[in-house]
Amino acid sequence: MNKKAQAQIITTVLIILLVLAAIVIVWQVIQGYAKSGSEEFEKKSACALLVIEMTNIVKDEGCSATVTGIDCNANKATCMRLATDTPPGCGGTWTSGSVTIRPDRDIGDHRVFVNGNLVVESGGAVSAVTTKTTAIEKLRSRDNIEIFGNIDGTWCTTGPDEDVQ
């Protein structure tokens, strides 16, 4: 075999090896994107199916004590102003509002937002089709409540949100 034929065979083998290496590299990149995309899809699909029903919303009725002779139950506007000026207010305690939720499947934890603000960081786990009541201080009419549930480490918005009546 002459040297020219050997050089052509070596060149052909090297080109084949380079093509195979390129195919392996491209396959690894595509496989990585496919795997991360499928994991993200699984998380989003778990959230898409979650429903957390708000079965009962109780708004805060204000202060449960008297302040320097003011009956808070009869004069709620004055009581509430004083309560926000000097928490917990009125020389007594607030009667907390609450929201009762019922998820359609187990959630590891839940968060409560009122008017876009996080008011309950960790409401705890709730089993499917059972209810859990979470206290929310100073819950008023026209406040907007939104619940987020945690499934396998992913926080899911559960919409629709509710307005306090």
Descriptive overview:
Helices cover 34% and strands 31% of the residues. The protein has helices at 3-48, 76-85; strands spanning 52-58, 62-63, 66-67, 70-71, 94-95, 97-103, 109-114, 117-120, 132-136, 144-151, 154-157, 162-163. The protein starts with a helix and ends with a strand. The strands form four sheets. Strands 7, 8, 10, 11 and 12 form a five-stranded antiparallel beta sheet that branches. Residues 64-68 and 82-94 have low confidence and may be disordered. It folds into two domains: 1-48; 50-163, no CATH class.
From the alpha carbons, calculate the radius of gyration and give it in angstroms: 30 Å
Please state the overall shape, judged from the principal axes of the Cα atoms: rod-shaped
Number of separate strands: 12
Residue fraction in strands: 25-35%
Helix content: 25-40%
Topology readout:
Elements: H1 3-48, E1 52-58, E2 62-63, E3 66-67, E4 70-71, H2 76-85, E5 94-95, E6 97-103, E7 109-114, E8 117-120, E9 132-136, E10 144-151, E11 154-157, E12 162-163
Keywords:
single chain, 165 residues, alpha+beta, three-stranded antiparallel sheet, 31% strand, rod-shaped
Summarize this entry quickly:
Helices cover 34% and strands 31% of the residues. The chain has 165 residues and is an alpha+beta fold. The protein folds into 2 domains: 48 residues; 114 residues, no CATH class.
